[in-house]
Amino acid sequence: MRTGGVSNLLFMNENGTMVERTADFSPCLQDPTQDRDVVIKDINGDERPDVITAPTFGEHPRVYINLGDDSQGNWRGLCLCYDTQTDTCHDVSYLSTNAVCYEDATDNCFVNIPALNDELRIPTFPNPPHFCGVAAGDVDDDDCPDLYFTDYECDAPTCAQPPTPRLFDRLLLNTKVGGVCTGFFTDVTNTPSTRLCPNGSPCFYETGFGTGAQIIDMNNDGVNDIVRAEDKKLDIMYNDENNVGHFDVIHHLHDEFLNLNKSYMFAAGDMNQDLGNDLYVVKTNQDAFLINMCVDPQGQSIDCDRGDGTVQFVAPVAVSNSPETMYNGGNAGLIDLNNDTLLDVLVSDLDAKGTQEHFLRILRTHVNPQTQAVDVRDPMGTLDCDWSTRHTYDTGVLDIDGDGNRDLWAANDEGNHVFLWYAPTDCDGDNVTDGCLGDIGACCPPFIGVCSDTFRECCDAQGGLFLANARCGDPDFKCPSQTQNASIPPTP
Asked: Measured between alpha carbons, how far is 315 from 116 in angstroms, rounded to an integer?
């Protein structure tokens, strides 16, 4: 039963302006929900990204199918109540006689839709879910993205009133029929195939206070594993390459590295571009990163089981010069923001609630060219920028204005904000945008150091990153006009 919530919003990029078009293109998104996470992934093989939500407080997850374009090339939107046999979306007609698209799995918009569609794409669970995170990726090697949901339920004292009985995490496999991904999922979490329970109870899915997950290959054996944060701990569930889709080993990183016992969120990716996926960990104290040693001296990706089915990491290293990442932060993401091939880190400062006075951070990954040692540092330190919004829940990076540079979307407790990339200027007069090569020197303006036409990175004498406005770290995102919300119309 729904206990409140707010409506999701769909913003469309219209010539560099983000316009709210929820009612026009996805009316069921307007239902007030308690969604905690969302993932965008093509689940039915039509090469169009779909939307999957993870709600908290007993609501059922939703799948919104991307309808693609009509015969005139106009996009038809995202559909919840979609009949694949007739290519018909029932959202508008269903809402004409119902207050919302559906409340739960027994009162939904699929009841009168023909065969195969008379069931939810995500099946009914034995107990109401309390999900906090959802990850999408192929775990059974059939080229169809599967889903892993992390459950927020937990035991006392972490949860004052834990629900009974508990649901725990869920692993859902995408059904493939005739070589085609259908986008209909089967719950295989607790099945005779023991996909997540190789040695009997306690099974891998029996978690508490799960906050997030990611499906990614951590040991370079060619099949995707599952990384999960739960109850201030961090786990890797390794996929069995000889029995793909079954998880035979679990790696409790918080047991190997005791300073990870305060983990809350994380992001996984190849931060230093050495072909091994690393981890950035958001903690309730100083954030840290772990570099994967799954790479040989020649820089080739290798299967690096160290004998017990797990991967060797360099011991966690704290983020440098970053007082704003010493607290219980929120979502994190890895993406190369300044085109140096190394993944930068976006760290939101706030979870779903709280009053802490902290700000969004962009951290830079550096690799020492002589020793190959990795460092993640905060070029801003205690400073803040126009884009370092307070009470930020999450961020997105996309090219909004079509200039080829990545712009920043930030969502905080005041609303949604857009910041456009503000590139350095031409330092040396050759009509090519410049930046400093390396960590020492200064430029743009004034031009003091050696410039490179390849990198859009400017540095100060202290090894931090220099901005055109000389206030804080690169990249410098500037507002489209005088107000942060200039490119986003007010939300009703």
From this structure: 49
